[in-house]
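In this section we walk through a basic example: taking a raw amino acid sequence and producing a predicted 3D structure, encoded as discrete structure tokens. The instruction is simple. Fold the sequence below.
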Amino acid sequence: MPMPLEYCQASADFDAFMKDLVATSMIQTSHQAYTMLLAVLQVFRHRLTVAQAIAFANVLPPVLRAIFVSDWDVEAPVKPFVDRDALMKEVRAFRHDHNLSTDTALEDVTVVLRRHVDQAAFERALSQLPQEARGFWLIGQA
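The resulting token sequence is shown next.
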């Protein structure tokens, strides 16, 4: 079997994703955007069971998939979903001294992520998750 194209293209696709995230969020560097991305992904992941998180990860591009599951304590208790303000507070608290997340980090990452995934597969994965998890990836949700 030949190597899947998504793996051959992984670095280029991730570079395109990061450039899009920097431009969309108007953050100055890819390092700052990466910290924001990691914070948003981990805030979401902390609210999923292992099975839910793996199902979600499976629809992400390879590098984003790896970032999503990296440094994961699968024994940690699942956190409840909370309102967007509380989620943003958690995003900003991630690596506080090195985090320059925008006030719209959840929306910024959502917009860019949705541009870089297979929409049908993404929606199918979200449809299997609880309502709050689906709401996390909707633009303008309270």
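Looking at the output, two observations stand out. The domain at 5-136 is CATH 1.10.490.110 (Globin-like). The two ends are 45 Å apart (CA to CA). In the next section we compare this with other chains.
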